Amino acid sequence: MLGSFSYCNPTKLYFGEDSLNYLNAELPKYGKNIVLIYGGGSIKKNGVYDDVVKILKDSGKNVAEISGVMPNPTVDKLYEGVEIARKHQADFLLAVGGGSVCDYAKAVSVSVNCPEDPWEKYYVRFEEPSCQTLPVGCVLTMVGTGSEMNAGAVITNPHTHQKIGHVFADEKIMPKFAVLNPKYTLTLPHYQMVSGIYDIFNHICEQYFSGEDDNVSDYLSEGLMRSVIHSSRIANRAPQNYEARSNLMWAATWALNTLVSRGKSTDWMVHMLGQAVGAYTNAAHGMTLAAVSLPYYRHILPFGVQKFKRFAVNVWNVDPAGKTDEQTAKEGLAAMEGWMKELGLVMNVSQLGAGAEMINGIADSTLIMNGGYKTLSRDEIVEILKECL
Ligand code: NZQ
Ligand code: ZN
């Protein structure tokens, strides 16, 4: 049975090969002072930077830049960007990049006019902004996080070994618009492409593996998962296949834009474990999720057998005839494991640089959620992490 919820997603999407042209229509809606935010230089190599800058110039904007936003953006980089945006008296923030750049732009947006320390306010105390925020637009170049159409902003504090995501409650933090051109993603290295693919898939799992009620979100999730598996196999063999890459881009947005979480308590423990691993290793986000997923799901399977069985049958086409529910459920995870290996995902945390000596620290850094099939104890977290080595 569905409970009560509200739903509003104000992000306007422009999808397709000509989608950047719509920047011309969006920019006049905002003030003159724009801060262009991007990462370590991929957009300069593939020409996206030149195309965006030309449109900004033609529309008469006064542009400052925050460059070098690193994967898993840090709190120190956030402080630096806030200073640049303040000095420039920014009216609008334009993020051009992947999830890190989009997240970072949202973090700057809520911090520019914030008199308090944003790390303490948003990432330690999880408060909502009480100041004026800046509008954000996004030109996406990496597929996976869904940051282009949600209110999440993940920031890493390397000093305290914490990687924390704040999903802001107020939809005004979501990007005002996002430009989704699948062509821009064709220059991604294979490692980043498959990391993003697993991120998409796991976002859906995190929302799917909760609740026992009949819920439309689960049917939507199963369709999205099947589409991701199908397109990922094509993209893995032929990364330049536009059809597959465009479907992955669209699926990523719908996997984490608040739709399939409606009516769900949601799990998110793979992300909590993965983010803690990320805080210690600075590894690519999707790979941290891949490295912890199977030990986690095998651990909680006995507490959610019926859902894992449904996952096996509806997503992985496992035939349940003549098998116990638990056998069918386990075959589903085995099929998922086969697919993960086929894509070349990292299957343990050791390969990401995490060793046994880090387990206690990673466990301390793992936030415990209670929306899934089992609320973990710290001892269980340590046990699972040991299996991830
Ligand atoms: O920095 P550049 O030079 O641009 O290179 C990036 C970066 O090294 C490169 N890249 C991006 N687009 C490219 C490209 N290289 C070639 N061609 C292109 N078109 O890819 C690398 C990774 O980029 P990044 O933005 O870090 O990846 P991703 O999109 O996976 O974002 C990861 C961040 O998002 C957070 C993660 O925790 C992590 O900090 N997440 C945000 C979420 C949200 N907002 O809801 C949810 C997610 O679960 C996730 O936690
Ligand atoms: Zn994720």
TrEMBL record:
InterPro entries: ADH_Fe/GldA, ADH_Fe_C, BDH-like. It holds the Pfam family ADH_Fe_C. Gene3D superfamilies: 3.40.50.1970, Dehydroquinate synthase-like - alpha domain. GO terms for molecular function: alcohol dehydrogenase (NADP+) activity; butanol dehydrogenase (NAD+) activity; metal ion binding; methylglyoxal reductase (NADPH) (acetol producing) activity. Keywords: Oxidoreductase. It comes from the Bacteria. The keyword Oxidoreductase applies. Residues 195-387 form the Fe-containing alcohol dehydrogenase-like C-terminal domain. Residues 10-182 form the Alcohol dehydrogenase iron-type/glycerol dehydrogenase GldA domain. One of its GO terms (cellular component) is cytosol. This is Iron-containing alcohol dehydrogenase. The lineage of its organism: Bacteria, Bacillati, Bacillota, Clostridia, Eubacteriales.
